[in-house]
Amino acid sequence: MTLTQQMITILMVVIGTMMTRFLPFLLFPAGKPTPKYIQYLGKVLPSAVFGLLVVYCLKDVSVLNGSHGVPELIAIALVVGLHYWKRQMLLSIAGGTICYMLLIQLVF
Amino acid sequence: MVRNKHLTEKTIQKTGRSEFQVLKRDSKYLRALKAAFPHTIPIFAGFWFLGLTYGIYMNVSGFSFWYPMLMSLVIFAGSVEFVAVNMLLGAFNPIQALAMTLMINARHLFYGISMLDTYKGTGWKKFYLIFGMCDESFSINYTAEVPEDVDKGWFMFFVTLLNHFYWFFGATLGGIFGSLIHFNTEGLEFVMTAMFVVIFMEQWFKDHTHTSALLGLGLSALCLTAFGADHFIIPAMIAILGVLTLLRKPIEKGGGTA
């Protein structure tokens, strides 16, 4: 690829990313009333999206091979437990991450 | 002291605004930055690491550090930047590059729909807030409870800016020192998973009904099993949208989620 072709490829990725981010704001501008259906989606989507993001993070974990997702399961259980107990965001995240690192570096 | 007082009075006469007001105006930004920073600490760990990995990946793929540096600045969407490395190494195909980017980043459409109200009235910052709306910026800006004495617009601006900076910083460092770094960071990427689990739980505590949260988890897991890791996001989005549309009446009756 020439430098110009590389620039065009990168530009395409920029345009694609910006389209997905700006489109809802262009379709439903702040000045006009947003349709009720879109308002409803705006309210219920985030909870579903956070679920999607959790699954997205775990998409490459294989239950059938390797460590069978056991270190992930243990670490997530610890995150949930810590967060349920203390509700300290940083503590839950750090605890889970350190646990996971120890598990895959030393145990699995 | 007297001189200072004199000066202050002079300033008031000149600008019509007291030193106190100026101080208060300045600390508005500082207060927002101070409130935003703790929320971004996990992202700092995650982006520093992922950005570094991305920079190293670009480095070993034969690109100079200018590439990860500029790309992390103008794209700011982690997963697609990794894929972009392959696009740059392959044959020139701009339409395919655009189509793939749209597919990978389609979930951002959902973020936009959820942020229509939240980003309202943030002035010129709105452009940057939308530009920098990656998974992590969206999640924090949507769920964080901003203290009352902190300007929400500036809070969200700093969350986005700090995240953007961490990513840029990691990618650039990786691009420069890529081949020199040797220490065992295996498993550090889990910080992102842990963060999304915590954010999921925070949203769960806020919700009156958990239909939507459970649908998100269940339908995504189902689509992951059916379509595989590389192709499950679009079907999962369609499934979530479809089922939430079908369940609109009962969910709205149940008081919604917010």
Keyword list:
heterodimer; A: 108 residues; mainly alpha; 2 domains; 4 helices; 0% strand; flat; B: 258 residues; 13 helices; globular; disordered N terminus
Description of the molecule:
The complex is a heterodimer of chains A (108) and B (258). Chain A is an all-alpha fold. Chain A folds into two domains: 1-57, no CATH class; 60-108, no CATH class. Helices cover 77% and strands 0% of the residues of chain A. Chain A contains four helices and no strands. Chain A has helices at 3-27, 36-57, 70-86, 89-107. In chain A, helix 3 packs antiparallel against helix 4. Chain A is flat and about 50 Å long. The N and C termini of chain A lie far apart (42 Å). The mean pLDDT of chain A is 92. Chain B starts with a helix and ends in a 5-residue tail after the last helix. The model of chain B is unreliable at 1-16 (pLDDT under 50). With 258 residues, chain B is an all-alpha fold. Chain B has helices spanning 2-15, 19-60, 66-74, 78-89, 94-105, 107-115, 125-131, 135-143, 152-177, 190-206, 211-227, 233-246, 248-253. The longest helix of chain B is centred in the N-terminal third of the chain and has 42 residues, at 19-60. Chain B folds into two domains: 29-188, no CATH class; 207-258, no CATH class. At the A-B interface, helix 1, helix 2, helix 3 and helix 4 of A face helix 2, helix 3, helix 4, helix 5 and helix 6 of B.
